[in-house]
Structures are given as structure tokens and as C-alpha cells.
């Protein structure tokens, strides 16, 4: 039997996905998208954009770490 899908999140039959957890997953998905954009930005030829991209990458990684800690 396949696991049910709740708002794009795959869960086992025993798992109750709370609204808080769904919100945390949504935040994580948006951080991943932002991280990809910033990574691409840091590869541009403009040194100022590369510097800004590196700074933003560190901030995004910090937010990702905090989110993973909050999710437990």
C-alpha cells in the first residue's frame, strides 16, 4: 500500500502531519529555492554579486540549520 500524500508531503500511514510541520516543510522548500538562486548569483562575473552571494549563502545555510533543529 502506498503512503498517502498530504499537500506534497509524503507520509507513512501512521504519521500525522501537523500544520506546524507542514509550514516548516514549506519554509524549507522556499529556502532551498532561494539557496539555488543565490548559488547561481555567486557564479556571475561581477565581484560584488559574488561577494553578496557568498554572504547570503552563509545566512541561508544558518537558517536551514535552525529549521532542521526546530524540526527535530
Question: Can you put this structure into words, describing what you see?
Answer:
With 72 residues, this protein is mainly alpha-helical. It has a domain at 28-67. The chain is built from 2 helices and 2 strands; from the N terminus they run ββαα. It has a two-stranded antiparallel sheet. Helix 1 runs antiparallel to helix 2 (47-71).
Q: What is the tally of helical segments?
A: 2
- Rg over CA atoms: 16 Å
> Helix amount, in percent?
55-70%
Extract low-pLDDT stretches.
1-7
Task: Walk me through the topology.
Blueprint: E1 5-6, E2 9-10, H1 19-42, H2 47-71
Antiparallel strand pairs: 1-2
Helix pairs in contact: 1-2
Essential attributes:
elongated, disordered N terminus, two-stranded antiparallel ribbon, mainly alpha, 2 helices, 72 residues, 2 strands, 68% helix
Brief characterization of the structure:
This protein is mainly alpha-helical. Helix content is 68%, strand content 6%. Strands 1-2 form a two-stranded antiparallel sheet.
Amino acid at each position: 500500500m502506498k503512503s498517502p500524500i498530504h499537500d506534497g508531503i509524503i507520509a507513512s500511514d501512521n504519521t500525522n502531519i501537523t500544520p506546524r510541520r507542514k509550514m516548516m516543510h514549506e519554509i524549507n522548500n522556499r529556502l532551498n529555492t532561494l539557496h539555488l538562486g543565490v548559488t547561481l548569483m555567486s557564479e556571475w562575473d561581477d565581484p560584488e554579486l559574488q561577494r553578496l552571494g557568498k554572504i547570503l549563502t552563509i545566512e541561508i545555510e544558518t537558517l536551514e540549520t535552525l529549521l532542521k533543529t526546530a524540526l527535530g
